[in-house]
Every structure is written in structure tokens, then in C-alpha cells.
Amino acid sequence: MPVFTGKPTMGWISGMASLFAAIPVSAQSLPTTENGFYMIRTNADDLSRYRAVDSMCIGENHDDLMAFINTGNGTLDFLELREGEKVAATRLKLSEPDAGVSQIRYSLVEPDSEEAVFELHFINPGALGDPAKIPMATLSSVHIPRVNVTHLDCLMGEQILYAGIDQNHRVTVMMDEEGTLVFRQSSVKQAWVARNISGGFWSTGKRGEIIFTFFEGSTVTSIKAAPHQRIEYPAWRTTSSVGREYSASPKGFFVADMEKLGSRSNRLPFGLVLHFERLEICRHLAGEASGNPDRDKQVAESRDKAGCDEASAQHAGYIEQFAGNEAVSKILKTHGTDF
User: Fold this and answer.
1) CA torsion 99→139→137→264, rounded to 10°?
2) What is the DSSP string of 38-59?
3) Taking the CB of residue 152, how many other CB atoms lie within 10 A of it?
4) Could you read off the pLDDT of 189-241 as tens digits, one per residue?
5) In Å, how far are 52, 149, 198, 215 from 182, measured between CA atoms?
6) What is the pTM of this model?
7) Looking at 122, 153, 184, which one is the last position of a domain?
8) Domain, as residue range, for 72
9) What DSSP designation does 126 have?
10) Strand 181-187 vs strand 193-198: parallel, antiparallel, or unpaired?
11) Are 186 and 168 in contact (CB under 8 A)?
């Protein structure tokens, strides 16, 4: 299957204009979701600054990310993040929707030539289940009507609570039928799954942050998302007793409104999530001691600033507080203050 490589998309439009028939255009807007939000990085080189968009195709069978913002009066902005560049917005028109029983198609039209650039295929949310419980906008695929037809499948489903992609990996968090959170990290280059962890937790912060946390032995994997412009790097990270094993931030992501769609049975207090983050910092600092007086003094000052002694004292309190929660109690005992 041909794969869209994410190279500059608009440059070939004028040259291909004669290949497509004109499409009537009226004031429309693409379907969005009220059950979550989409964010895209504003600059390929800035790993922490994002902006909101209305819908997004996160590649299921390709490594590209395409985003769309409704701008009113039957127009929208198409955004694509290219390596080494800022996000460039291209204004397009929307055609009359072509609606079927369980699906609807939109054509995106170049304003000057009136030629089709993209065809977007949405599934009717009712075909997937209760629309009030469907997290993502139901964009299932993007078609690029070129000479060599390219069909791009998009991550979409009633169980996806988080989906993100960077230059190497695709990350999803799903909720199975029993309400269990499942983390999956897969390669965007090859057809294999790097990691699959079941039984995670979610939390929300005071500024709207949503954090998913998964524990596997002594390893902790966390995924951070937020509806505001800056998200502390790294948004994705995996740590163990020997330090950080993996860190990255997505080019773009979707995250569900967990206050609406999350299960209370696997929710962690935000303070406990911050406690685990502090333990990670303190464990890392413990390994930085070198026997060099100057360096050890710096490490000791960093430990004081991080509040490592306070974390040790708080840990015992958390063990007592969650004594009746078998899953959390086990995690607290496994990821203790061994630093």
C-alpha cells in the first residue's frame, strides 16, 4: 500500500489541478468531539509547545499526522508538522457532505482552483455505540486523490482514551470492556508492538492535566497530556530503579475527558502521582553520588530542593492511606523510598 510520507503536501496541488473535477462548496464544518481534545506541536524543534485543533488523523498504518481547524463559513485550516519547521496552516474549503447510513464523506477543496485536495471519511458515532461515550472525532481515513491513490487509515475507536505519535512510535491508551486501562507502544516504521501493559491508572491535575500511569515490575510508564500550550517535556517517559529508560513527546495527540469517561476504580489522586514523580527524581539523584566532594554537594543540594527526605516521610503515610486498595498498596510497596 502506498504510504503518505509527510513531505510538503500543498506544492503539488496547482500542478495536479486539471486531474480533478470541480466540487460545489457550501458553509460546513468538520465533525468534532465534546469528549476530549486534540493538540499539535507548533514547531518541530520545540518539544513542549502545542496548540489546539478540532480533529486529527493520527496514522494507524503510516507515520504522518494531519490536523484540521474549523474556521467558519465553510472553510478550515489544514496543518502538518514537518521536520525542522513550524506548523504551516493552509486554508481550504469544505464541500457539501456526502452522507450515507453509517458514514459521511467530506472533500477539502483548494480555494483558487476549486480542486479536491483531500477526501475525509467519518463514521457515524451511533454506528460505534452511544455517541455520548465515543471519545474521539470519528475520522477513520483520509484519501488523497492523486494519480497513485493514497489511502491513510486514522486511529479511531470507541475505546481509545489517548492516542499520540512521534517520529518513531505510536502510543495509545485504551479502556477494555471491563474498564481496565491498556497501554500500547508500537513502531511507526515496522509492524511490531514494542510494549503492551495492562492495568493502569489515570489522574487529573489542577490545570487540566491528564496523566496515565502504568506499573510493570519496578518500571513506571507515564503519559502526560494537557489542554494548554505548554506540556512539560517529556510527555512520555519510562523509568526504573536504574533511571530513565525512555523519554519522548508526541508531534500531536488526542486525549479523552477523563472526568466524563474515566472509571473511578482506576483513578489515582494527583498528589500520589506527583509523589511517584518525586521518588523518580530522588532515585535518580541517589545514583549521581560520585565520591567527588563538589559533585556530591551539588547532589545533596538537589535532593534537598526535590524534598527527598519529605518524600520518604510521606511514603509511609500513603501506604497507610491506601492499605485497603490492593493494587495501589502493592505499587507503593514495590516503588518505595529505596534511595
Assistant:
1) 130
2) EEEESBTT-SSBEEEESEEEEB
3) 21
4) 877 777 899 999 999 988 889 999 998 877 889 999 998 878 888 899 988 76
5) 25, 34, 4, 11
6) 0.84
7) 153
8) 10-153
9) G
10) antiparallel
11) no
